[in-house]
Amino acid sequence: MKILVVDDDKMLLTAIAHYLKSSKIEVLQAENSLQALDILENQNKNIGLILCDILMPGASGLDFLSLLKSFYLEKIPIIIISSLGKSEIIASSKKLGAVDYLKKPLNFKELGDLVKKYI
């Protein structure tokens, strides 16, 4: 099982990948929505979960969710990770198909619990 992590913050991307790899989970990393879409096009059958930031250059995490809604959300659960904790952002992400929401700064125990819940 692979997890795709999408975040433009390279340090956080590396920290999440390191944490998940320590739990024997294979991690694919993308720094923006376009890279994530490319990875999905090539490996979507093997990806079991997507962790995605909202604020990214180019297409935001919500834009990414909109693009995925028709093609991948039936198959791949998505957890949004963001420093934006506003209830309308959380509601928008869930309306677009996100299964859960994690607020930054991340609590890695909570991240691990959610990953186990959805894979």
Polypeptide structure, described:
With 119 residues, the protein is of the alpha/beta class. It has one domain (2-118): Rossmann fold, CATH 3.40.50.2300. Helices cover 45% and strands 22% of the residues. It has five helices and five strands. The chain has a five-stranded parallel sheet with strand order 2-1-3-4-5, with helices on both faces. It is globular.
Question: What is the H-and-E element order?
Answer: EHEHEHEHEH
Strand order of the largest sheet: 2-1-3-4-5
Q: Which consecutive residue ranges, at least 5 long each, have pLDDT under 50?
A: none
| Overall pLDDT score | 88
Shape descriptor reads: globular
Q: Which structural class should the secondary elements be placed in?
A: alpha/beta
Q: The CATH topology, please?
A: Rossmann fold
Biggest β-sheet: count, sense, barrel? 5 strands, parallel
State the total count of DSSP E strands: 5
Share in β-strands: 15-25%
Helical fraction: 40-55%
Number of helices: 5
Q: What count of domains describes the coordinates?
A: 1
What's the alpha carbon Rg, rounded to whole Å? 13 Å
CATH superfamily: Response regulator
From the coordinates shown, what is the CATH architecture?
Answer: 3-Layer(aba) Sandwich
Termini Cα gap: 8 Å
